[in-house]
Design brief:
480 residues; alpha/beta; FAD/NAD(P)-binding domain; Enolase-like, domain 1; 3 domains; 7-stranded mixed beta sheet; 5-stranded parallel beta sheet; 22 strands; 25% strand; globular; redox-active center; cytoplasm
């Protein structure tokens, strides 16, 4: 007899495990299926984000930043440190322990909230049945009143650079290097490529990033993107735009990567390691039976409406497997929305205010519209900016690269976008997101008391600068 649940969630990543916990909190009998196997050979909850994505990459980013600080920047504080060294295996071991703590934490949350966990691969059948296939090949059927598909995404592979163990790796492999490569090639100058490139660059690798597009960080506000590009160049990240990779060849312990540059010339670079970071694709392999009724587009994304309903009543899909940015926080909020809808509550998500962050140092972050988007919309607008070079807190921390930008509507003064490159950019942008969620004007932010000295004063000053009222920089003349 098949087990019956109110909600069956397929996938225990940030979208799936959050949906399962919220559904259980709302009194729904909930199961969650996960097939990810961790390094210890046991099922690991948390999906890409906890196991090989957001969390482990941040662990390495922080370790590498601390190493770089000790090696290159302590002296300015009057601190002398000799023979600074990096133990890469120890750094990787620490990262693995953090992952283990967090994935184990999700298992604890399932237990505390009464979520039934199933190990195996889930498949949606007709009639809202879910088949769970375990590692030993045995299968079990679950009956569900509602199904939430949250199977996530996987790295895209490209034919010119097929993955070769230890030499050409994806983002997962880049988290496992046991030594610092002398020359590192990164294909793709997006979030993942920049973050992983900066980790190994800080530790001493010579990093070349090859990007096919001719615009750096096309999704970001271009004023901020250009400032970020200058900062990364100073950090010796060699980012080459308009470079299309055409092939690769393994030569012993090295990889020759062939590409055409911005002039159309054929070029070749030799690397010790190559990271392929050209994006991710939805993971829908063997997910849907032919008669399940759930529809996908040609790229493998599941069709859903604004509240993540598929075309089959009672079946939802959330996270990386549906339209929108592939971000853990977006997936989590979709999971909560769907769980609440299933429980009969009113629930809606604001897709206009999903923050984006690149965790380099300095960070790059934004929420709302870019200046390019506002200009294209024809809306009248005004802009205020403030550099961290004028921030007392940033000076005290020896961390003054970057700036804050606030875009507001010319007539209503409503904040349309907040964009930051600089220290704690993610946290400052989140303050902007809260303000925007409540429909704040730039004047509202300007009238808010910010503690001194803080980095967040830069957001306060940028909001004041929108109307030429910044105190700690000379105000630019307003454009007509």
């Amino acid at each position: 007899m098949a087990q019956k649940f109110d909600v069956v969630v397929i996938g225990a990543g940030p979208a799936g495990y959050v949906a399962a916990i919220r559904a259980a909190q709302l009194g729904l009998k909930t199961a969650c299926i996960e097939k990810w196997i961790g390094k210890d050979g046991k099922v690991a909850l948390g999906g890409t984000c906890l196991n090989v994505g957001c969390i482990p990459s941040k662990a390495l980013l922080d370790s590498s930043h601390k190493y770089e600080e000790a090696k290159d920047h302590f002296k300015v504080h009057g601190i002398s440190v000799d023979n600074v060294d990096i133990d890469v295996p120890a750094m990787i071991k620490r990262k693995d322990q953090i992952v283990k703590n967090l994935t184990g934490g999700v298992a604890g949350l399932f237990k505390a909230n009464g979520v039934t966990a199933y190990e195996g691969a889930g498949k949606v059948l007709a009639g809202k049945q879910v088949e769970v296939t375990k590692r030993d090949g045995s299968a079990e059927l679950l009956n569900a009143e509602n199904i939430i598909i949250a199977t996530g995404s996987s790295p895209i592979e490209i034919p010119p650079t097929p993955l070769t163990e230890g030499l050409i790796v994806d983002s997962t492999g880049a988290l496992e290097f046991q030594e610092v490569p002398k020359r590192l090639g990164v294909i793709g100058a997006g979030v993942i490529g920049l973050e992983l490139g900066s980790v190994w660059g800080r530790l001493g690798a010579e990093v070349i990033v090859l990007e096919a597009m001719d615009t750096f960080l096309a999704a970001a506000d271009q004023q901020i993107a250009k400032e970020a590009a200058k900062i990364f160049k100073k950090q010796k990240l060699d980012i080459r735009l308009n470079c299309r990779v055409t092939g690769s060849e393994v030569r012993g312990n090295e990889v020759a990567v062939k590409y055409t540059n911005e002039k159309g010339e054929e070029c070749e670079e030799l690397f010790d390691k190559v990271i392929v970071a050209v994006g991710r694709r939805p993971y829908t392999e063997n997910l849907l039976a032919d008669d399940s009724g759930v529809k996908m587009d040609e790229r493998g994304f599941i069709f859903v409406d604004d509240q993540c309903r598929t075309e089959v009543p009672g079946i939802y899909a959330v996270g990386d497997v549906v339209r929108g940015p592939m971000l853990a926080h977006k997936g989590s909020e979709e999971g909560i929305m769907v769980a609440e809808l299933i429980a009969g509550q009113a629930a809606q998500m604001n897709y206009d205010l999903i923050p984006s962050v690149i965790y380099t140092h300095p960070e790059v972050a934004w929420v709302g519209k870019t200046e390019e988007e506002v200009k294209a919309s024809g809306e009248p607008y005004k802009v205020g900016t403030f550099p961290f070079a004028a921030s007392g807190r940033a000076m005290a921390a020896n961390d003054t690269a970057g700036s804050v930008k606030v875009i507001a509507h010319e007539k209503t003064d409503r904040i349309l976008g907040v964009h930051v490159v600089g220290p704690s950019a993610a946290e400052l942008v989140q303050q902007g997101a809260i303000a925007m969620e409540f429909g704040s004007s730039a004047e509202d932010l300007g009238l808010t008391v910010f503690s001194h000295p803080t980095l967040s004063e830069a957001l306060h000053e940028a909001a004041l600068a929108v109307d030429g009222h910044a105190i700690h920089i000379a105000n630019k003349k307003r454009r007509k």
